[in-house]
Amino acid sequence: MGSTDNSSGAARKARIEEMRRAERSRARRNRTVVIAASAVAVAGLVVGGVVLMDSGSGRKDTAASGDNGKDTGDVNSESSGDSGHFTTGKDGVRTWQGTLSRNHVTTPVSYPMHPPVGGNHNPVWADCNGEVYTRQLHDENAVHSLEHGAVWVTYTLKAAKTDVEALAAKVKKTPYSLMSPYENQAAPLMLSAWGRQVSVKSASDPEVDKFFADFVQGPQTPEPGASCTSGAMK
């Protein structure tokens, strides 16, 4: 039994390390693409400015009339798009039964649970490559991280300092995880993944390791292997 567990743990570590290498490679490619795209965009703006200056004098400005600025594909920014409810398993893990929407929105979202475990979210994710934040994150960015397969550790001022420090140390060495304070939650210490959530009594609670093992890049992940870097920075 012990050798089987060790083999499984080694395979998981190897898979996460491979993801980490892919992340670094993807981040390098993204930087190159951004630099090239920025250069093209600047050139386009210069050319566009010249054209507008040439044609602007003989043309009326119509931007303020009609519904030219309206994007008919916008999602209702006040709704998470979620429907359903939590069911609680024997291990205390709450699973969302129902729909968790995955549209990108750029305005605040009203989620039916806190912290949220899914729903419409910001196009930019919160960096989640073992990131420990000292300020509360925007829900909309953190939910995007969950979509990429991250586990999000949150805590309130009622959490013991020793537990916060121990959980922070665990997060820092775990790719696809992040941690931040979160005051509007039901328990001092909570762990969330896409569609999953659990409250734990302390950093040494056995459910901590189990939750990480089950849900870091777990089967619930909508976008496994998606980037956890180059998102919203600290």
From TrEMBL:
Compositionally biased spans, kind Polar residues:
74-86
- Chain spans, region Disordered: 1-28, 54-94
Stretches with biased composition (Basic and acidic residues) = 14-25, 57-73
Q: Which Pfam families match?
A: DUF3105
The record's keywords, sorted A to Z, are:
Membrane, Transmembrane, Transmembrane helix
Q: Say if the entry is tagged with keyword Transmembrane helix.
A: yes
- Answer whether the UniProt record assigns the keyword Transmembrane helix to this protein: yes
Task: Indicate the transmembrane segments per the record.
Answer: 33-53
Protein name listed in UniProt: DUF3105 domain-containing protein
Taxonomy, top ranks, is:
Bacteria, Bacillati, Actinomycetota, Actinomycetes, Kitasatosporales
